[in-house]
Amino acid sequence: MAISINEKRCPQNHPCPAVRVCPTQAIIQSGFKAPTVDQNKCVDCGKCIRYCPMGVFSFAS
Ligand code: SF4
Predict the structure, then answer these.
(1) pLDDT category of residue 38 using cuts at 50, 70 and 90
(2) FRET label pair with 33: which of 1, 4, 14, 54, CA 20 to 30 Å apart?
(3) Can you name the residues that pair with 28 across neighbouring β-strands?
(4) Ligand 1 centroid vs 32 CA: distance in angstroms?
(5) For ligand 1, mutation pick of 19, 21, 37 (most atoms within 8 Å of CB)
(6) Where do the domains of the chain lie, and which CATH numbers do they carry?
(7) Is 44 in the pocket of ligand 1 (CB under 6 A)?
(8) Average pLDDT over residues 16-39
(9) What percent of the chain has pLDDT over 90?
């Protein structure tokens, strides 16, 4: 599995709440831009999916 990011859903106007809950610091956000995920660090825990109110994160199908 891998985490997929739907940038269109991200309002890009606030710090991504998922950055601080990710247990492996796999989520990178530059300024208020849509975040990216370092798939090498990600452990597929799914926390980011639950923490993002906009539904930006999902498991890639
Ligand atoms: S699934 Fe877990 S480890 Fe992977 S980016 Fe999301 S919060 Fe981080």
Answers:
(1) very high
(2) 1
(3) 36
(4) 19
(5) 37
(6) 2-60 (3.30.70.20)
(7) yes
(8) 95
(9) 92
Contact at 8 Å (CB) between 57 and 49?
yes
* The pLDDT of residue 29: 96
What are residue 4's DSSP bridge partners?
58
CA of 48 to the centre of ligand 1 (A): 6
DSSP strands (E only) in 1-61: 3-5, 27-28, 36-37, 57-59
Between the alpha carbon of residue 49 and those of residues 11, 12, 29, the distances in Å are 16, 16, 15
What is the spatial distance between Cα 35 and Cα 33, in angstroms, rounded to a whole number? 6
